[in-house]
Amino acid sequence: MAEPKAKRPRLEEVMASACDVATPQKVSKRGEKEAVVQNYVDLLKAQKTPVVKFPSLLSDTDLQQVLRCHRAVLDSGDPAVTNPQNRQHKRKQCLFLHGQAVPEEGQLLSRAPGVLRKMLRAAVSAQQEGQWGSAEPDRAGSEVDRDSALSGIDVRRCSIRVVELWEYEAGGGLVEEYHFDAGSIVTIVGLVNDKEEFTGGQFQTKEPDGHLQTHELSKGDVICFVSHKYHSITPVTSGKRQALVVELWEGGLPMWCR
């Protein structure tokens, strides 16, 4: 007698699960480098995956809520203290909009749950639209799917690793062409301010043939990509670029190993 199929979780349950803040599963005895990650994403396969774009996904109201949370975090303390990584950043800074150290007024999850819901749904849709790999157990072992970066990984069951707002001033960028978000599964990026407010600051991915693909973004646009895909941001030449970044993962690498 065939076993009954597992009941598919409702979208509300999926989103509630995805909004859980994950913690590392196991840290090495010396506390160095990495802990256990359930699924390492194959770097070569990740490079073959496309970036999926969702134009105008975030409304002006959504973005105002994001900026209010950002302002609350700014007002709560020195960015070099609230995020020690900012001590090494040049002409850019990153502030967390989630986590125990973030004031309640700065928590995007509680203050603007609709914004995160849109971004999480986009990530789920992107897995299918981008053909990154099937989450269905009966398909994950197929010949076609075995060559996919996220074969057997269900983005709906990932957890939020970080919610960040990045600001790049003139001279700031992410110029390492081979940068990737180690340990994360899907990265979601939304442009917060008008592209007319800055020059430069173009989001690029390094494609399998070696060329850099520029992905044009306007205010409110959201892009999703497999986190291990090489990506970079050209230096801002004038003005300020603001972007909301959410990374999803299955737990594992400490936050600072990025």
Class by helix and strand content? alpha+beta
Number of strands: 10
> Which CATH class applies here?
Mainly Beta
The CATH superfamily is identified as q2cbj1_9rhob like domain
Domains, number: 1
Work out the helicity level. 10-25%
User: Segments where pLDDT lies below 50 for 5+ residues?
Assistant: 1-36
Q: What is the terminal-to-terminal distance?
A: 48 Å
Run of helices and strands: HHEHHEHHHEEEEEEEE
Large-scale geometry = globular
Number of helices: 7
The Rg value, from CA coordinates, equals 18 Å
The assigned CATH architecture is Sandwich
Q: How would a textbook summarize the main sheet? A: 7 strands, antiparallel
CATH topology assignment: Jelly Rolls
**Approximately what portion of the residues adopt beta-strand conformation?**
15-25%
Mean pLDDT over the full residue set: 84
Describe the structure.
There is one protein chain. This protein is α+β, with helices and mostly antiparallel strands and 258 residues long. The chain has a single domain (41-249), classed as Sandwich (Jelly Rolls). The chain is 23% helix and 23% strand. The chain contains seven helices and ten strands. The strands form two sheets. Strands 1, 2, 3, 4, 5, 8 and 10 form a seven-stranded antiparallel beta sheet that branches. The protein has a three-stranded antiparallel beta sheet with strand order 7-6-9, with no helix packed on it. The radius of gyration is 18 Å and the shape is globular.
Short description:
23% of the residues lie in helices and 23% in strands. By secondary structure, the chain is of the alpha+beta class.
